[in-house]
Structure formats: C-alpha cells, structure tokens
C-alpha cells in the first residue's frame, strides 16, 4: 500500500473514531439531554437526528470529510470518490458505534442490577 493511501486511511479512521464518540455523546448522554429535548420541540426530524447516534454520525462524518479531505479512491470522478470515501468512513463509524453501544448496554445493565440489589437489601432491613 502506498503511504498516501495509508495516510488517508488513518485520517478516515480518526474521523470515524471521533464521529462515533461525538454522535454517541450528543445522542445518548445526560450532558446533551436539554439540547435533545429542545430540538425535539422545535422540529420532529431534527429531534430524531439528536436522538439517533447512527443518524448523527452521518453528519459528523460529512463534516470531518469537509475539514480533513481524505481521499481513498482515485477514479477520476471526484464526487464519486468523495462519496465512496465518506461511506467507507461511515461504515467504520458504525462498527465503532456498535461496540460503544454494547459497552453502554453492559454499563446500564450493571447499574440496574446494583440498584435492584440495594433495594432488596434495604427491604430486608
């Protein structure tokens, strides 16, 4: 592989990692609960965007693509190359989001189990 392709693939991976983290943070954490509620009141479609990490990741990836200009393919059709690179990056983002979501699910399950155990212990006292 040429060093240019490796460099651009590294950029795509960095965009994917950042996009997954940003989209998950905006759509799933309490930090942005107010923003999600506000956008849902303003516009149903925009509200959905701010609740869906998969949807949000598209916009974050596209922003990263505009800023960093990775270029994995060279067909001579710049728009097609850009779109293909964007969707390759989105696919990486989706895999990373899936892993992050599984971690969130495990953390929530553990939290719920601890909470239920505390309630059970309090009832026994």
Q: What string, H for helix and E for strand, traces the elements in order?
A: HHHHH
Oligomeric assembly = single chain
What would the principal axes of the Cα set say about the shape? elongated
- Tell me what portion of residues adopts beta-strand conformation: under 5%
What is the CA-atom radius of gyration, in angstroms? 19 Å
What structural class results from the helix and strand content? mainly alpha
Number of domains: 1
- The low-pLDDT segments are none
Major beta sheet summary: none
Q: Tell me roughly what share of residues is in helical segments.
A: over 70%
Separate helix tally: 5
Mean pLDDT: 94
Number of strands: 0
Distance between the termini: 66 Å
Please give a structural write-up.
Keywords: Membrane, Transmembrane, Transmembrane helix. This is DUF1360 domain-containing protein. The chain crosses the membrane at residues 44-68, 80-101. Helices cover 84% and strands 0% of the residues. The protein has 125 residues and is an all-alpha fold. It has one domain. Helix 4 (53-68) packs across helix 5. The longest helix has 47 residues, at 78-124. 19% of the residues are buried.
What's the structural blueprint in terms of helices and strands?
Elements: H1 3-28, H2 33-42, H3 44-49, H4 53-68, H5 78-124
């Amino acid at each position: 592989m040429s060093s240019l392709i490796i460099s651009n693939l590294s950029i795509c991976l960095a965009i994917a990692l950042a996009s997954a983290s940003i989209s998950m943070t905006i759509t799933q954490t309490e930090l942005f609960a107010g923003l999600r509620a506000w956008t849902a009141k303003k516009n149903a479609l925009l509200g959905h965007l701010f609740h869906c990490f998969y949807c949000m990741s598209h916009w974050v990836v596209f922003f990263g693509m505009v800023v960093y200009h990775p270029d994995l393919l060279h067909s001579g059709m710049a728009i097609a190359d850009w779109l293909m690179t964007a969707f390759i990056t989105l696919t990486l983002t989706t895999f990373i989001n899936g892993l992050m979501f599984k971690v969130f699910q495990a953390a929530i399950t553990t939290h719920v189990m601890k909470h239920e155990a505390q309630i059970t212990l309090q009832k026994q006292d």
